[in-house]
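The following record pairs a protein chain with its ligand, 5'-deoxyadenosine.
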Amino acid sequence: MDISRTEIADWIHADSPEIINELYRIADRVRYEFVGDEVHLRGLVEFSNYCARDCQYCGIGVNCSDISRYRMSHDEILECARNIVELKYGTMVLQSGEDWGIDTEWMTTLLKRIKDETGLAVTLSVGERTDDELLEWFEAGADRFLLRFETTNQALYEKIHPNLGDKVSNRFGMLKRMREIGYEVGSGAMVGIPGQTYNDVVNDIMMFRELDLDMIGIGPYIPSPGTPLYDDVSLQRVVPGSVDMACRVVALARLVCPKSNIPSTTALATLNGVDGRIQGLSCGANILMPNITPAKYREMYSIYPSKTALNEKESGISLSEWLEFIGRIQGSGRGDSINKVER
Ligand code: 5AD
C-alpha cells in the first residue's frame, strides 16, 4: 500500500480514539481483502530455555540465574508434533533461546523426523545461527525462520543486545541470507522499549516494508524483573508498551505489508487477556500461536512475567469455535505466506 512516512508518523502520534479506531478499521479491511478471514494456527513449542545471550530485556538470558533450564528430547518434541497434527494446525513453531547445546546435527535429525512423520510446515525461532546451519536446516525441511530485529535504532539495539564475545550480531544480514536460501522470512520488533522514540517506531514500520517480510511479529515490551533493563533508570520510557500502541504498529504493519502473516502475539494477550488477542486480530493480525509446550516446562520459559499462553481449549470451547464466535474461521492447510508464494 502506498502509505508515506509522514502518514505513518501521523497515525503513531494520533491521540484521538476516533482516529485510532479509523486506523484499526482500515487495517482490518486490508487484512480481509488480502488474506481473508482465515486465522492460521501455529503450534508453538518452546523446546529449550537455555540461552547463551545476555539480552537486557529477556527473562531467560544467560545471567538469569533463578530459573531452571530444560531442553526437550527429540521424542518429546515429536509427541508435540503429533499433538499439533491432531489439532489440525498446519505448522509447528520450534522456539528456543540461543542454545549452543543444540548443534547442527541435532536440529537436522529432528527436522527430518518431524517432516517424515507429520509433514507439518516447520518454523524455526532459535536465535542467531550460522549461514551453514541456515542452509542445512532448510535442506532438512525447515520452511520458515523467525528472527526479530527488535529495533532499528542501532545504538539501542547494541545496548540491549550485547554481542556474544567477538561475534557481531547482524540480524539484517541473517534475514537477507534466509531470503536467498528460500525460507519464508519473519521478523519484527518490540514496542515501548526504554530508550525507543516514536521516530524509531516509524523507522521499524518502514523497515517491515523494506524487508518485504513474509511474517511480522510485534509485541509490547513487558518489563521483566531480574533483567538489567528492568532496573536501568538511564533509559527513558517514551513510547508506551501498551496494547494500544502495539496494535497501532500491527495495523500499520498490515498497511505496509498487506500480504504478510501477522500474529496476534502472546505479549498482547499477556497485557490484556482474551481482549488483547481479539484486539490484535481486529486491527490487522491473521495468525494465532497456541502454546503446545508441555505444562511442566511452560513456567520455565519465562521471557517476561505472567506470560499468558493461548490454549486450544479456553472457557470450554475450542479455538475454532472461538474464532467463529468473533467472525473468523480456522485456517486450513499450512497457511503459507502469499507474499512468498507470489514472489
Ligand atoms: N517483553 C516483550 N517481548 C519480549 N521478548 C523478549 N523479552 C521480552 C520482553 N521483556 C520478545 C523478543 C523476542 C521474542 C521471542 O520475545 O522480541 O524476539
